[in-house]
Amino acid sequence: MSNTGTERVKRGMAEMQKGGVIMDVVNAEQAKIAEAAGAVAVMALERVPSDIRAAGGVARMADPTITEEVLNAVSIPVMAKARIGHIVEARVLEAMGVDYIDESEVLTPADDIYHLNKSDYTVPFVCGCRNLGEATRRIGEGASMLRTKGEPGTGNIVEAVRHMREVQSEIRKLSAMSKDEVMTFAKVIGAPFELLLQIREEGRLPVVNFAAGGIATPSDAALMMELGADGVFVGSGIFKSDNPEKFAKAIVEATTHYQDYALISELSKGLGTAMKGLEMSTIAAHDRMQDRSE
Amino acid sequence: MITIGVLALQGAVREHIRSIEACGAKAVEVKRVEQLDEIDGIILPGGESTTMRRLIDSYGFFTAIQEFGRQGKPVFGTCAGLILMASEIDGQENAHLGLMNMKVARNAFGRQVASFEAEIDVKYIGEAFNTVFIRAPYVLEAGPEVEVLATYQDRIVAAKQGPYLCTAFHPELTDDNRVIAHFVTMVEASIKATA
Q: What are the residue ranges of helices labelled H in B23-60?
C-alpha cells in the first residue's frame, strides 16, 4: 500500500531542487534551453514578470496550451503559477499534472484576504514570503516550499536581499529566545505558535527557502546563496538578457559554486547586457507586487 | 574513522550528510574533483540528473568518479544518483556514468502528483522500510552481475553490483538510517580489502 501527496513527499520534492536554479519560460523552446543549461525545474508562464509589469491589467494563470507544451517538452519538473486564493486555477494545474504550483503575487490576487488551504492538495505548493510571519503562515496553510518575494520583474536584487535577511534574522532572534517569550513573538508577527517552537528547536525553517524576485546576474544568484537561500528562481533575468543560453548556464554554475569567486568572474565575462532593471523608488505603490499579500 | 563524501553539485546533500554522521562516519560535501582523494566512498544524492550531469561534465567529475569506482571504492546512488549510475536509460541515446549494468526508466512512477511513500523490505538490509519515492525512476532490466535488493509492485527499486549500491527511493528523507548504515559497512569492507 502507498500514500501520495504526503507532507514528506511534497516537502521532499523541494529538497531535491536544492542548490539549483528554477527558470521562468513561456514556451517549449525556452524550456529546452533551460533544461540543457542545467535548470532543476522550469516555471511555465504566459509572460515573464517584467512583461506582466509592462502590460498591466489583470494577470491570470497561463493558457493551459502553454503549460501543456512545456510539460511535454522537458523531463525536469514543471511548475506553474496560480493566482493567490484561486482554488479553481490551482485545481486545474493539479489536474494537468504540473509538479509544483506557485501561489504567486506575480499574478493578480483572486482573493485579497485568504490564501489557498494548500494541505488539501496532492500537488505541492511554493509561496512567497518577506518575513518569518509570512513564511510560517504559508507553511501553516500547507506550503511545502518558500521563496522570497523580492520585487518580481525588476532585475533589482535589493528586495530579495531584504526579505532573505529578514527571515534569517528573525530565525536567529527566535533561536535565542527563552521559551516563555515565544507566544508573544507569535502574536506580534502573526505566526503559528507550534511552528515557531519547532523552528526555534531546529534553528531553521522546516521547508526549503529559495530566493526570487530580482535576480539578474550570476553574482546576484551567488549573493542569494551566500545569504542562505537554498536555491534560486530566475524570472525575467534569463530570457530578457542578450544571450539566454550562456546566461542560463552561467547562473546555474554560479549557484552551485557560489563561493568560488574566480569562477564567477570567468562566468560573468562577455555575457552581454543583463536586463535593464528598475529602481525601487520609481515603482508606484500600486505596482509593488510584494505588497499584494501578507 | 572512515570518510564518506556526498557529491554536492545539486540536490538533497544536507540530508545525506546528517544520515552519514548519524551512522558514525565522517561526512564531507564534495564540490571539487581533488576531494575524491580524501574520501573512502561517495553518495550521489537525489536531485535532477540532467542538472547534475551538466555540472559533472563542467568540473571534470565524469572520468574521476568512474575511476573512483574502478579502484573498488563504494558508490551509492539515490534516485537521480541511480540514474547517473546506470549503463542505459530508457528513451535516451546516452547514459551517464555507466557504473552498473542496468537499464533504468526516469520518472517511471509518474509526475510529482504520483510521488508516494510505501513500506518495503530490502534484502540484507532489513524489513519494513518506510520509503519515499519522488518522481522516482526504477530499474527496467538488470544484468546478471546486478543483484536485486528490493522491488515494489514487481519493479526493481534497489540493487547492488560489487561496490555499487543504488535505490530509487530516498532513505535520507527519513530517520531510518539502515540503508546508509549498510553503505557504511560496504565502505569499511572495501578499506579492509585494499589494506
A: 49-58
